[in-house]
């Protein structure tokens, strides 16, 4: 007999898993969710939040939608895509984006009661996860998925507590794998994929610095930097991304995937930041730095019997166009 019984077992508390849990609990469907880590998102990876995604938050209730608007950067400050040699250097051009172009603003207004915002994943995940828990979701942290077995009436999932090492089982009608780009659920379910992993190499450098003198007069979320070497890594250009205006930033810079990943220490991170900002004296407060690979792979089927996958477990596409967390949250909405 299983240790825990529920309607839906969810692996992962990212945007897809937390959205699914929150929606199921809103609809009165019992669910149990686990996270192999002891924390929610610790870096602001996903951020562009489009109108369709905001409609999902609206469906969760005004308190969820309002909290997202409270923490998000308003559409007007998302502004234009800026192309430049560096933030302090020559500007090559600007392109009105994210519904701010006067020629398309009316279409955006008519398309939805919701507005697009920039909401870093470090804010989005807690909003969704807390909504789920308030509404009845049972959640456990530092617990990892081990395996599953399904039959005609349900799925038995084996989990492991990473603190004690003890294993336990959960019996559910359905299993949802929202366990990211290296999904064990997808692997164990035998779901087929097309595409390629590791098509490019990139690094993220998260830091604090007041850059208002370079950007406040031309508000944007994305400042694209065109410098020698910027086409390496699958992104096409270097990127200085606004996380919080105008003092928290994320740099995305490529490296050759066919070579060993660089060691992104404080000295290297500061050098890259100074290079892309264009200020050789810039002092930064480094918050984190890491390397990652650009993937382009998707599942051709997202269901195997009573097992479903969603989010990065199902579609691992490049970050261009800001579709990652949007598709993940909408996966959860559609399934719930």
Task: Describe the protein's architecture and organization.
The chain has helices at 15-26, 51-59, 62-71, 75-78, 102-111, 121-134, 184-189, 212-215, 266-277, 324-335; strands at 4-5, 8-11, 31-35, 48-49, 80-84, 91-96, 117-118, 138-141, 143-150, 155-161, 167-172, 174-177, 193-208, 222-225, 238-244, 248-255, 285-299, 303-304, 307-309, 315-316. The chain has two domains: 4-74 and 115-191 and 301-335, FAD/NAD(P)-binding domain (3-Layer(bba) Sandwich); 199-295, D-Amino Acid Oxidase, Chain A, domain 2. It is 28% helix and 33% strand. The protein is globular and about 65 Å long. A hairpin with a 3-residue loop joins strand 15 (238-244) and strand 16. The chain is built from ten helices and 20 strands. With 336 residues, the protein is α/β, with parallel strands linked by helices. The mean pLDDT is 95. Helix 1 (15-26) packs parallel to helix 10 (324-335), helix 2 crosses helix 3 and helix 3 runs antiparallel to helix 6 (121-134). The chain has an eight-stranded mixed sheet. A six-stranded mixed sheet has the order 8-3-2-12-19-18. Strands 1-11-10-9 form a four-stranded mixed sheet.
């Amino acid at each position: 007999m299983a240790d825990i019984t529920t309607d839906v077992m969810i692996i992962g508390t990212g945007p897809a898993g937390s959205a699914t849990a929150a929606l199921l609990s809103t609809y009165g469907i019992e669910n149990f969710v686990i996270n192999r880590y002891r924390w929610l998102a610790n870096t602001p990876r996903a951020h562009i939040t489009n109108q369709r995604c905001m409609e999902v938050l609206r469906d969760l209730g005004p308190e969820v939608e309002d909290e997202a608007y409270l923490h998000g950067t308003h559409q007007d400050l998302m502004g234009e895509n800026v192309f430049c040699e560096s933030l302090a250097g020559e500007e090559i051009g600007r392109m009105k984006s994210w519904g701010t172009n006067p020629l398309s603003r009316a279409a955006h207004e008519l398309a939805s009661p919701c507005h697009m915002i920039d909401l870093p994943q470090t804010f989005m995940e807690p909003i969704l996860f807390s909504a789920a828990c308030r509404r009845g979701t049972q959640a456990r942290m530092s617990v990892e998925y081990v395996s599953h077995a399904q039959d005609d009436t349900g799925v038995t999932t084996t989990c492991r507590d990473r603190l004690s090492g003890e294993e336990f089982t959960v019996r559910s009608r359905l299993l949802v794998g929202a366990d990211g780009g290296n999904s064990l659920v997808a692997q164990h379910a035998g779901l087929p994929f097309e595409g390629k992993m590791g098509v490019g190499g990139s690094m993220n450098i998260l830091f604090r610095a007041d850059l208002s003198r370079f950007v406040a007069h031309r508000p944007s979320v994305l400042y694209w930097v065109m410098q020698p070497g910027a086409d390496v890594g699958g992104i096409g250009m270097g990127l200085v991304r606004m996380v919080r205006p105008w003092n928290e930033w994320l740099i995305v810079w490529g490296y050759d995937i066919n070579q060993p990943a660089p060691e992104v220490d404080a000295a290297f991170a500061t050098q890259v930041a100074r290079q892309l900002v264009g200020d050789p004296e810039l002092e930064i407060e480094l918050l984190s730095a890491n390397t990652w690979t650009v993937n382009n792979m998707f599942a051709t089927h997202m269901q195997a019997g009573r097992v479903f996958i969603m989010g990065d477990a199902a579609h691992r596409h490049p970050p261009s166009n800001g579709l990652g967390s949007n598709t993940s949250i909408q996966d959860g909405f559609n399934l719930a």
